[in-house]
Amino acid sequence: SAVISQKPSRDICQRGTSLTIQCQVDSQVTMMFWYRQQPGQSLTLIATANQGSEATYESGFVIDKFPISRPNLTFSTLTVSNMSPEDSSIYLCSVRQGTLGETQYFGPGTRLLVL
Amino acid sequence: KQEVTQIPAALSVPEGENLVLNCSFTDSAIYNLQWFRQDPGKGLTSLLLIQSSQREQTSGRLNASLDKSSGRSTLYIAASQPGDSATYLCAVRKNTGTASKLTFGTGTRLQVTL
Lengths: 115, 114
What we know:
The structure holds two protein chains of two kinds. By secondary structure, chain A is mainly beta. Chain A has no helices and eleven strands. By secondary structure, chain B is an all-beta fold. Helices cover 0% and strands 56% of the residues of chain B. Chain B contains no helices and eleven strands. The interface between A and B is medium-sized, with 24 and 24 residues.
């Protein structure tokens, strides 16, 4: 199974600032996924990050607000830009692995509080 | 649009009890279903994965079943322990393509008391 690490594990930020979250995987993966989990809610997919191409964003999420980088097959970053208190969430990085790429694994999450 | 529902939303049981968590989905055309556990403020840990062609999967005290035609899955936890306390999420995946996504349920928050 994939081992995924995220930095930072948590942060408290002021409104209007930006935070970049890093995700590192212990093996090469084609696709990486970024999710958001708002307080008391289930997970919502933000975007899918492919190495060497632009990320694909889900409805309701835009690149200007959540720019993503994917410089290689083991690393990705998600930036939360111009933050507001509504951005307070857990942000999770995820990858898919397996013979048919069928099992999905998640990182430990980044807990963000925006004041 | 796929919708995934988990019942109950919360459950409290005494240590040692066997329990069942339920997951239902509206579109039975799924590729697989995955159960996760999430500790408070943490990421997700994959527990079991069931392919659409399978009926059940077992790992230790956990057993997950799938009835695709009726759009249901159950997670059975035997001899529950306080360490099992967490939120349990099920998620379904529609197909095997690279663009396929997981649709998550609402979760069941489990507390196992001494």
